[in-house]
Design goal:
- The protein is mainly beta.
- It has 2 domains: 46 residues, no CATH class; 62 residues.
- The protein contains no helices and 8 strands.
- The protein has a 4-stranded antiparallel beta sheet, with no helix packed on it.
- Strand 3 and strand 4 form a beta hairpin.
Amino acid sequence: MANTPGYPNVIAIREDSNEVPTDAKGESGIQFVGLMVWDADALDWVRMRQPIMNPLADDLPLDTRFENDANKNMKYKGIHATHKALESNANWLIWKYTWELISGSYCLSRIEGPLEGAWNNRDGLAWA
């Protein structure tokens, strides 16, 4: 075991493991290389695992809108936490994209936002 600098109560460990190998060769007797964290309840070191993420978490946008300019460059992007949100709802988070023509190609030159407002009033928001 070795101390992991900058991470209190976390150690790096290398030990024999009888877990099913995940390599393509299917060899047995693999080595587990990972991080262990101190469990204050069990008073023991336990293997650190990644948290399970819920893809339908409440903070993910359920409605996303885009508006492009005449050159097919994205001009506005808006997200809302409600599926099929009304365009007049004032809780849209909106970004504005500015493009510049440089040597015959459009290049993204500025991203503003997010500003909160109605999608159908995105031009009227307080852009710089």
